[in-house]
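To whoever is on call:

I kicked off a structure prediction for a single chain this morning and the downstream step that reads the tokens threw a length-mismatch warning. I double-checked the sequence; it's 300 residues and nothing unusual in it as far as I can see. Pasting both halves so you can look.
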Amino acid sequence: MLTNKSIPAFPVDVVLQENYIEDLGLEKQHKIDRMAFYMLSKIDGKKTIEDLIEEIHDHFSDVKKKQIEKDLMNVFSLLEQHHLINFSNKLQDTLLSYFVTLANRKYIPSAKRYNIQTLSFPAMVLFVLVRCTAQLFPLMVIVTLLSSIPFLVSKEAEAMTVIFYSLCIFFAIVVSISIHETSHLYFLRRSLQKNSIGFLKIGFMSFKIIRPAVNEQLIVAVSGPMITGGFGIAGAWGCLMISDPFFHLVGLVCSGIFLIHLLNLLPFFNDGSKLYNEIFDQHNKITSPPSKLRKKRYSF
């Protein structure tokens, strides 16, 4: 939740220059003016927005604090749209942001960017999983408690059983999305031989790996759903060995969450559209009539 007590900081792969901000993760440069550079140069990862306003006002004493605050918030809004800045809050402000967002869906809290500096797939998955679990922990507690209330009121199940089931579902969702998104980034980095491109972006009830807009190989597009679905198939097969009815059910539900990712291979999803575009492009190249090729060859 962005307030005057929030502390802004640049991610490690975002570099502030006098005339532009360089995004190393997406290999982009964003131009800025001298005033924006002056305001942003005061950010050190320790000062709150309120401290920055006071410091800027000391330099521009003829400008009202309200105007400085408005200009600074506008700059932060633009930076956040391009994933160029992070904001940290105290624990009570973080918890408050979850309840505010649940009460008012029009409110969009600030997301946080994390750099992943490795080419190891297990290390990347572990990094994403730990960060996402830590960031979404308050939400996990809220969802677990809310989902347990109906069962506890009706007394149809024990409290620990319901909580365990809710936690398994939550972690299955987080782990499956972590593997899906990390697979895309892993194969993109391997194909380009760059271990610094892309980054993890965590917001309210969501997280995603942002990748640069480049011509991706087909394996980059299909790796997410295929690898995640593969874990789902292995999990479903493993459930055949579980004799306990409750754990068998939990295992099947969690495996189903992984298998759902295979739906992304359908043509109306982003991953699937890239797959089918590649297939039809190859088909058109093979089946193009020779007469059309001759016409194109001699048309000039």
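Update from on-call: the warning came from a stale cache, not from the record. Cleared it. Sanity check on the structure: The two ends are 61 Å apart (CA to CA).
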